[in-house]
Amino acid sequence: GEITASELPDNVAVTGLRTAATSAVGTDILAREDAERVGLLGSAGQARNHLLALASIRKLKQVKVYSRRAENCKKFASQMGPLLGIDIQPVSSSEQAVRGVDIILTATNSSVPVFDGTWLEPGVHVTTIVGSNVGLVQGGFTKAKRREIDDTTLKRSDVITIASVQQAIQDEQGDFFDPVQKGIIRWEQVIEIGAIVAGKKEGRTRPEQITLFKNNAGQGVADVALGALVLKKAEDRGLGQILDL
Fold it and tell me: Which residues on adjacent β-strands are paired with residue 41?
């Protein structure tokens, strides 16, 4: 048989892009149409991928970026600003990053909330991506389950969405499973983003609503789409080879 690139989508570069693509779908559905200012927490690879994805769904005018190391923020701004033609400002605190923006994107590996939910302003959208499961703690890889948002953010969100409820329950993910256990929110409040895409549930219905999307699980359709794109680009450029097995 023949193995093509479309059957081998799980490399590092494509995996990073598929995560960002899923986040972009959720953000596109939930953020206001006029959203143009982004607060970005994190400055590594996923932050870069996600900013590229966000720039494809909204006409961004300003980005504020914060991470614990100031030099990383400055490097991020100097690289991504010219690439996208966007004003990217390194800031010195997470509060500065999330105040006065339309979209907040958290791309960290934190085990504690990275901003205070009281800072959220009407109409803002939040997308969070940190991976978390109880197995990481039980295996000794982390001291605590990873979590980027606090209980206040959940309480203040008018629309709470997630990629997969089942994944959150199975992995006992810190951002959602723990707050449900504490009675902060109920699973009945949490909408899977696919249900909104399919028109079965509503997302944002008013501009002043605070919306939240937790990208907590990979989407197979994203792997297939990106694999097909990689294959097409490789074929167009005459790259790669067919393996006869």
Answer: 66, 106
Which residue type sits at 39? G
Q: What is the pTM of this model?
A: 0.84
The total number of structural domains in the chain stands at 1
| Per-residue pLDDT at 7 exceeds 50 | no
- Residue 71 contacts residue 93 (beta carbons within 8 Å): no
CATH of the domain at 194: 3.40.50.720
Domain hosting residue 189, numbered range: 2-244
C-alpha 193/C-alpha 221 separation (Å) is: 14
161: CB partners within 8 A, 6+ apart: 26, 30, 190, 191, 192, 193, 196, 203, 211, 212, 213, 214
The neighbour count for residue 222, using CB atoms within 10 Å, is: 19
Query: Taking the CB of residue 166, how many other CB atoms lie within 10 A of it?
Result: 10
Asked if 127 and 216 touch (Cβ cutoff 8 Å), the reply is no
φ and ψ at residue 94, rounded to 5 degrees: -65, -30
CA nearest 91: which of 41, 47, 45, 51? Answer: 41
pLDDT at residue 3 is higher than 60: no
